[in-house]
Amino acid sequence: MTLNITVDDDSAVAPYEQLRTQISEQARSGALPVGYRLPTVRGLAEDLGLAANTVAKAYRALEGDGVIETRGRNGTFVAAAGDAAERRAATAAAEYAAVAHRLGLSRADARAAVEDALRAAYG
């Protein structure tokens, strides 16, 4: 199992975004299995000829998306995407419920707002 990343210097897409997209796609497709240990920021930066800050920015974005997780000195690993997605959705739902309650929306109005948003997102 190898991380297969290519960065196109001539692309209009920023290098960190190219890196983020490729790792995300490989993790979600299963090409990088849950628990796969990613290279260190410095190691990957050196391999790809990128600045360490570029790789660090991509890793932060991936961690924010729940695609990877950092385990301190043990390294950075591909996360269980389903679990992370469910946790993020539950957190977002709880935050929305709290905001809707503070705004004084009824349950029916809060649900209607969610339904509208889901229709917009899913078509």
Characterize this entry briefly:
By secondary structure, the chain is mainly alpha-helical. Helices cover 60% and strands 7% of the residues. The chain has five helices and three strands.
Question: What can you tell me about this protein's structure?
Answer:
This protein has 123 residues and is mainly alpha-helical. The chain has two domains: 15-79, Winged helix-like DNA-binding domain superfamily/Winged helix DNA-binding domain (Arc Repressor Mutant, subunit A); 82-122, no CATH class. It has five helices and three strands, in the order αβααββαα. It has helices at 15-29, 41-48, 52-64, 81-102, 107-122; strands at residues 37-38, 68-70, 76-78. α1 (15-29) packs across α3 and α2 packs across α3 (52-64). It is elongated, with a radius of gyration of 18 Å.
Features:
123 residues, 2 domains, 5 helices, Arc Repressor Mutant, subunit A, mainly alpha
SSE layout and pairings?
Blueprint lengths: L14 H15 L7 E2 L2 H8 L3 H13 L3 E3 L5 E3 L2 H22 L4 H16 L1
Antiparallel strand pairs: 1-3, 2-3
Helix pairs in contact: 1-3, 2-3
Strand content: 5-15%
Q: What's the CATH architecture name of the largest domain?
A: Orthogonal Bundle
Structural domain tally: 2
Q: Quote the distance from N terminus to C terminus.
A: 37 Å
Integer average pLDDT: 91
Structural class: mainly alpha
Run of helices and strands: HEHHEEHH
Helix content: 55-70%
Rg on CA atoms, Å: 18 Å
Biggest sheet strand order reads 1-3-2
- Spans with pLDDT under 50 lasting ≥5 residues? none
CATH topology of the largest domain: Arc Repressor Mutant, subunit A
Gross geometry: elongated
The fourth-level CATH homologous superfamily of the largest domain is Winged helix-like DNA-binding domain superfamily/Winged helix DNA-binding domain
Helices, by number, come to: 5
Largest sheet: 3 strands, antiparallel
> What's the CATH C level of the largest domain?
Mainly Alpha
Number of strand elements: 3
